[in-house]
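Sorry, I am new here, but would you mind making up a protein's amino acid sequence and the C-alpha cells describing how it folds?
***
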Amino acid sequence: MTASDEQPGSAAHVLALVANGSATSRADLVRELGLAASTVSARVQDLVEAGLLTESGEGASRGGRRPRLLRIADRGAVALAADLGSHHVRTGAVGLTGPVFDVEEDAADLTSGPEPALDALAERLGALAERQRAAGRTVRGVGVGFPGPVDADGGRIIAPSRMPGWHLFALRDRLADRLGLPVLLDNDANMLALGEHRATHPALRHLVVVKAGRGIGSGVISDGRLYRGARGSAGDISHVRLEAAGERPCSCGNIGCLETVASGAALAAALRAQGIAADSTTDILRLVENGEPHATTLVRQAGRDIGAVLAVVVNFFNPEAVLLGGALSGAQPLVAAVRGMLYERCLPMATSELLINAATGGPDAGLLGAGHAALRGVAAGSRGKER
C-alpha cells in the first residue's frame, strides 16, 4: 500500500465526505464533487464492495425519486495503527468514525536494530488483529508512523539518526508479509499532523504540526491534505542548522542542527552533564513541573530555538495554525517560548490570526492519523476482501 491523500474526486475523498456528514447520498456527492453521476456511482460501488460504506433506507426527495442513504459501515473497516518511538511502541485500532480503541503501549528499543523491532511489532499487531476479528470487525490494513525519515511510496526507512541498521530497511513490505495485510508507512510527525487535523482542526486548511519529543519533526497540512514534498522530507526541521547550536556534532553527520540543542535527547544529556538525573522526556517534564531551574531554563531555550526555525516556516508557508505536539509540548515554558519567537520574528500579517498552541489530540493523535491514512489507502486502491 502506498501513501494516499484525499485527492479531489477520489474514492478516499468520497469516503471523507460521507464520514464528515457533507454527503449522505450519491446525488449529494455529485453536487459536492462536480463529477458525472456514473463516476460517482463507480466510486461508491468500490467503497461498498470494500466494506467501507453501506447504502440503505431512503432520504428526502428533491423533486425526483427518494435517494438511498450512504453511511459508514457500522461494523465495517478498521485499521490497525502503530506509533513508534525510539523507545516505545503504541498500538490501537481505528474505525472510520469515533476514537482510537484497544490501545496498548509497551517499551521497545528501535536502536537495537530492525529485525528485533519487526518481530515485536508484528507480534503486537497480530494479537491486535485477532482481537478485532474476534469482535466481529474486519481488519482492512495497517498504518505505521516511524520516528525518522521515510520513503512513503517505497515503504523504506531512510538514514534515521541514532538508529543503526535501519537505512533502506523495507519495513512496509516486511510487515505486510508477516501480517498478511496491506501496510502504509510514513513519518511519525506526518501521522501526528493527520491525526491532529482530523481530530481537532478539520476546518483549517493550512497547518504545521510539530512533534517535539526525544527528537524533533513536523508535519505539514496544505490545502487540507498532507504535504510530503518531492521526496517525502517536507517538514523535517530537525536538521536545520541553527547558529545557537554552534559546532555541536549531530547524529546525521552535520554540525549545529536544531536536534543537537532542542530535542528531548539533547536536553536530557545537558541536564546529566550538570549532575541532574534525566534519562527521558518524562524526567524533563517532571523537573520542569517541580520548578527545577536548570531544566526550566533549558526547556525555555529549546522553545526559542524551535521557534527560530519555525519563524522561517511561518513566514514562507503562512499557515493558519502551528500546533506543538509530542511529549515536550507538555512543558508550558517551551510552548510560551515558541509563541514568543514567532511573534518576534514573523511578519505581523503572518501572525495576526495565527493559532499557536499545544496540540490537543492527546497521545492517540498519531494512531488516529495512521489508522485513517491506512483506511484512505484501502479506499483509494483496494477492491479486494480481507486477506
Observations:
- The domain at 77-192+365-381 is CATH 3.30.420.40 (Nucleotidyltransferase; domain 5).
- The chain has three domains: 11-72, 77-192+365-381, 203-358.
